[in-house]
Design a protein that fits this description.
The protein has helices at 8-17, 25-34, 37-44, 67-106, 122-126, 128-131, 135-138, 141-149, 158-161, 167-176, 180-189, 195-213, 243-257, 259-276, 280-290. By secondary structure, it is an all-alpha fold.
Length: 298
């Protein structure tokens, strides 16, 4: 819409003038008012002639571009975010708990081991107050109650503190652990031999988790770093940096946590792909941009 707001009538006319087919104008207006022209723009982007260029876009659509297909792609994304958010939560909780369990039982006389610079990197320990245990963190009712009862404690014990840390902070805590033996033991628990691989997998899971939490576009998701070779068995050059490869990492990690939840997630994603692949253009986007195919989700 450029820098000037437009009425729904003008939005529809603009889309049509650029070559988009809109069969049901009233339904299109309902969707535009519900979802928004700006947000939907991310989903009709693949239908533009200049896609995937983000500079000097003409905003003109290819022949056959259909408003309904853009909406279907939007709902594919929406439902996929819901599936991923549900199962990633299971991975996050499991990793958080296993890390806490492993380190706390190794340092039984040191319940605040997470700020001990003989246990974790000095940088992590010295910045813990400013980056993790902030004023807002201390407002947490459980943490506040702990300090009310145990006024002599600078920090609540690991099993309380780590429970309320962000997933990113928990991953950073894992990276900060000095004893490689313990880091390898945690990696091995998830069937992974190398520390670098489990750290990479966790970062992929965290990125997807944040995308889902903030409602970001998923179909063209590109992880910040390439996926490392490992037991997730990502194959094909493009899959090391696309949605398909990233979901393979999530599925691998989930399988180590619960085979039942893994099976459920596989079936839910396959069903979602099959449903939205009934539209040839949406199927093409899911396959070529996301890299997803119901036959290779496993």
């Amino acid at each position: 819409m450029g820098n000037q707001a437009m009425t729904l009538d003008k939005q529809v006319r603009l889309l049509r003038s650029r070559g988009m087919t809109i069969a049901d104008e009233n339904k299109a207006k309902e969707v535009l008012l519900d979802v928004g022209y700006y947000r939907l723009g991310f989903y009709w982007f693949p239908f533009e002639k200049t896609y995937p260029a983000k500079q000097n876009r003409t905003h003109e659509f290819v022949a056959g571009a259909n408003f309904d297909d853009a909406v279907k792609l939007y709902y594919f994304d929406y439902k996929l975010r819901s599936i991923l958010a549900f199962y990633i939560n299971r991975i996050e909780i499991n990793f958080r708990n296993f890390l806490t369990y492993t380190l706390s039982n190794n340092y039984t006389d040191n319940p605040q081991w997470f700020v001990d610079d003989t246990v974790v990197a000095e940088q992590f320990a010295s910045t813990f107050d400013s980056t993790v245990y902030t004023a807002s963190f201390k407002l947490n009712s459980v943490i506040r109650q702990h300090h009310r009862v145990h006024q002599e404690d600078t920090y609540a014990p690991a099993w309380k503190t780590i429970e309320y840390m962000t997933f990113g902070s928990v991953i950073n805590l894992y990276k900060a652990i000095k004893d490689r033996r313990l880091k390898i033991a945690i990696a091995n628990h998830y069937g992974i031999r190398y520390i670098e691989v489990v750290e990479n997998y966790l970062e992929i899971v965290r990125e997807l988790r944040n995308y889902c939490a903030h409602g970001n576009v998923l179909y063209d998701f590109v992880p910040f770093k390439y996926i490392r070779r490992g037991p997730a068995e990502v194959r094909g050059a493009s899959n090391f940096r696309n949605l398909n490869g990233s979901i393979a990492v999530v599925l691998y990690m989930l399988k180590q946590v619960s085979i039942n939840r893994y099976n459920e997630m596989v079936e839910e994603i396959k069903a979602l792909i099959r449903h939205y692949s009934q539209s040839p253009k949406v199927a093409e986007i899911i396959a070529n941009i996301s890299g997803l195919d119901a036959s290779n989700v496993k």
